[in-house]
Amino acid sequence: MKKTNMIPISIMVIGFISLIGCSGDMLTAPGVENENQTVAQQRGIPTDQLNLVPLRPEIAEQLRQLTKHGYDEKLITVHKGGSVGGKHTFKNKVKIPAKALEEDTWISVRVLCIDGKEQCGATVEFLPNMTFRADVTITLSFDVLDFDGDPNLLKVLWYDDTTGLWVEVDDPKINYKHKTVSIQVDHFTRYAWSL
Fold it and tell me: Start-end ranges of CATH 2.60.220.30 in the chain?
């Protein structure tokens, strides 16, 4: 039996199919800008263009000194659910209903500074990055912000990991008495305050 060399024929066939199947309208990978798509067409705001609301100076100083405030974590079980955050995270927290998790999971809430324009911009990160089976409630406090205006002027933004942009949250529920907003989400990310 005579052996034939199939490799060059395979390469030619793959190359031919690639030439026929490709066009200038192909989708690009996340983060790769299509020449027809401008930054203005993307949904969101780049981090360097955010107008972040700063934390009150004493809160920012506590975070910069890495005190015990600003972080909380807890093991949340599938069957019970639970809350993480509150006192140690300046009233920023998440409430997870029973059966929203795939498995028992360590959940954390961390208050961060995004330094910009010589200010400590208020940001809260919820981890791990995951999607839930049911919506969870995130509560963010504006009591710790260096802001004394109308809370309706504040914008809550979430960070879109796929685009690298900050996107405004639709319809946050304001609690004027407790100086918080609550939102329903199906996944974790970072949240920030902006004007």
Answer: 43-194
